[in-house]
Amino acid sequence: MYRLMVSLFVPSVVLILSAAYYMESLNVDPIDKILIKPVCLLILVFYLYFIVVEIIRYKKIKHSDNKICRDTVGSRIKIPFKEAGIICMTALYVWIIQYLGFVLTSIFFMGAMLYILNVRKFWVIVCFSVVSSAVLYLAFKVVLMVPLPGGILGF
């Protein structure tokens, strides 16, 4: 049961934040909240789907644990180095983006993430990092007109 509760923690937090955001947006002009209600409903649908999938997975694991007696002697605890690296890199990205700017920081961040996720071809890392940063920059800065940190490059 503990495993089921742990796997539902993050989706529950997202659902709670979504509900809080929806409650905060009730007093906003109708034109400004066109997407808020559909997105919150979509989050609710995904949450319900995730609950069903996790309950089914929990029952399968519980059923297989009852059938098979597992030997725990010699089992080792797996330390999640890759996941810890991703969390640290994301925190570093958020901290450094204000100094180096969106474009430069995003290129380095995406390159590092690809390397952590076992992409070893240099040209794939460089091309994906540069192209995806450019697309994100154009989408946010030009199309959506969202201000992004300029940093040392000024854009």
SSE arrangement:
Layout: H1 2-7, H2 9-24, H3 36-67, H4 81-100, H5 102-116, H6 122-143
Description of the structure:
With 155 residues, this protein is mainly alpha-helical. It has two domains: 2-67; 81-143, no CATH class. It is built from six helices and no strands. It has helices spanning 2-7, 9-24, 36-67, 81-100, 102-116, 122-143. Helix 2 (9-24) runs antiparallel to helix 3 and helix 5 (102-116) runs antiparallel to helix 6 (122-143). The longest helix is centred in the N-terminal third of the chain and has 32 residues, at 36-67. It is flat and about 55 Å long. The termini are far apart. The model has no long low-confidence stretch (mean pLDDT 82).
List keywords for this structure.
mainly alpha; 155 residues; 2 domains
Concise summary:
By secondary structure, this protein is an all-alpha fold. 72% of the residues lie in helices and 0% in strands.
What is the string of SSEs from the N terminus onward? HHHHHH
Q: Report low-confidence residues grouped into runs of 5 or more.
A: none
- Mean pLDDT metric: 82
Please tell me what the overall shape is: flat
Distance between the termini: 50 Å
